[in-house]
Amino acid sequence: MENTEPIIIAKNVTKIYGSGDTTVTALDHVDFIAQKGTFTAVTGTSGSGKSTLLHVLGGMDSPDEGEITVAGVEIFPRKKGLTRRAARAELAVFRRQNIGFIFQSFNLVPVMTVRENLAAPMMLDGRIPDKDYMQEIAETFSLAGRMDSYPSQLSGGQQQRCAIARALIAKPAVILADEPTGNLDTKNSREIISLMKSSVRKFGQTLVLITHDPDIAAEADRAVYLSDGKISEIQGGFRHE
Q1: Taking a C-beta distance cutoff of 8 angstroms, is the pair 209, 27 a contact?
Q2: CATH number at residue 221
Q3: For a Cys-Cys bond, which of 9, 52, 136, 187 suits 69, CB 3.0-4.6 Å?
């Protein structure tokens, strides 16, 4: 049987934007769990709360209510005596070391080579990337021959592979991806999803991916459907072998 230890646990998470007549409840008492080493797709119509869920799971936005635990750590703890600035700094360090982010827009640094882009997250944390691991990731994502190239010299598919490789380089427990194939054609989209699935298995990470594409959602171990800030349906389950 595969390890099905929970790596992400969200309880009663609520996020509200605005006030009065402009109030929008983006997340409405959501409970969410992702098991270690699995691929969960989160889907739903625009405005259903998908991206908000991803942002609070990754500590990029804070919930108004509820608790979120990632890799055994509560990421919004109510620590007495800790200033807001100190709490943000502590969370930023945790994110860099435990969570990899992949976005639709790639977010590569244009004046850095592929090699430098891959190393950047760890260098920000004062760490030196493992050269052998970087080479393994580069080969996995067919970037080994483009390490000295700049983003402008890469195709869209290559840029997204670089963005995914960068998210993996610090060996995070969790990968959060927000519409990572949204700027790609169908062929490149399928290739990227296949690579992400294989990397989850190969490198032991947990993937939570936002998508509008039902075909991509069908590739996941589990698909979670959001509607009006609430989980409306869950399809599939976690693997037991």
Answers
A1: no
A2: 3.40.50.300
A3: 9
Number of domains in the chain: 1
Rg (CA), the chain: 18
Residues near 86 by Cβ (< 8 Å), separated by ≥ 6? none
What is the extent of the structural domain holding 98? Answer: 38-48+85-236
Residue 22 falls within a domain, yes or no? no
Residue 15 lies in a domain: no
Q: pLDDT for 200-219, tens place per residue?
A: 888 888 999 999 888 899 99
The two structure tokens encoding residue 124: 């920000």
Q: Is residue 211 part of a domain?
A: yes
pLDDT in tens, 1-22: 345 679 999 999 999 998 888 8
99-103 and 174-178: which strand pairing?
A: parallel
Distance CA 122, CA 183 (A): 26
pTM of the shown model: 0.88
Rounded Cα distance, 133 and 139, in Å: 10
Q: Are 57 and 176 in contact (CB under 8 A)?
A: yes
Q: Which of 168, 224, 219, 240 is nearest to 33 (CA)?
A: 224
d(CA 48, CA 41) in angstroms, rounded, equals 14
Among positive and negative, which fits the CA dihedral 189, 136, 71, 56?
Answer: negative
**Is 220 contained in some domain?**
yes
β-strands 6-17, 24-35: how paired?
Answer: antiparallel
Residue with tokens 């052998």: 132
Cα–Cα distance for residue pair 211/60, rounded to 1 Å: 19
Angle at the Cα of 133 (from 206 to 140), degrees rounded to 5?
Answer: 70
